[in-house]
Every structure is written in structure tokens, then in C-alpha cells.
Write a structure and sequence with these properties.
95 residues, mainly alpha
């Protein structure tokens, strides 16, 4: 049986945007933040993220950013014991 071709997740032109940003990173001219105020890009991952972000703004085929729900930690079993607090009296604000 022949393999079924997979659908592309990223467009070819979006790969070009990432490639362009990687060149800027290697050259040392890639900067982060609005207007480059965030300083120089220090990691490859950051450069790739900037390239994909630029591709998204141009309207190219790029998957959405991963939601925080997927990366959230798994819930752990909580203990049922209750902690007692010392009650502190507050001064009234009325004088």
C-alpha cells in the first residue's frame, strides 16, 4: 500500500521568513521587541519564533501558537488536611 501524502503545516514562503530571520540572528542584527527595544536575539528558538510571527502577520500558512492549557502541569492529588490560621484583629478605618 502506498503512503498517503501529509498536508503541509507551514507554507514554503513562511520557511523563507524564518530563514531570513535566522540569517539576521547569525549576523547579529536581529533584535526583539517593538522597534528592537528588547535587545539582541540570543537564542535560535527566539529567532525562529520571530520569523514565524512575521509570517503570521503577513497572512501566511502557519499554525497558531500553542495554548497555555496544553503545557500546563498535571493536577496532583491535594492533601485534605486543613491548616489553622491565627486571626489578627484589624483596626477599624472609622474614627
Amino acid at each position: 500500500m502506498a503512503r498517503k501524502a501529509k498536508k503541509r503545516r507551514y507554507s514554503r514562503s513562511s520557511g523563507g521568513d524564518v530563514e531570513r530571520e535566522m540569517r539576521r540572528y547569525k549576523k547579529g542584527s536581529a533584535k526583539s521587541g517593538p522597534g528592537g527595544r528588547g535587545g539582541r536575539v540570543k537564542s535560535r528558538k527566539q529567532a525562529i519564533a520571530i520569523g514565524l510571527s512575521k509570517a503570521r502577520k503577513k497572512g501566511k500558512k502557519v499554525p497558531k501558537k500553542a495554548s497555555k492549557r496544553k503545557t500546563a502541569k498535571k493536577k496532583t492529588a491535594k492533601k485534605t488536611t486543613k491548616k489553622t490560621r491565627k486571626s489578627s484583629k484589624r483596626k477599624s478605618s472609622k474614627r
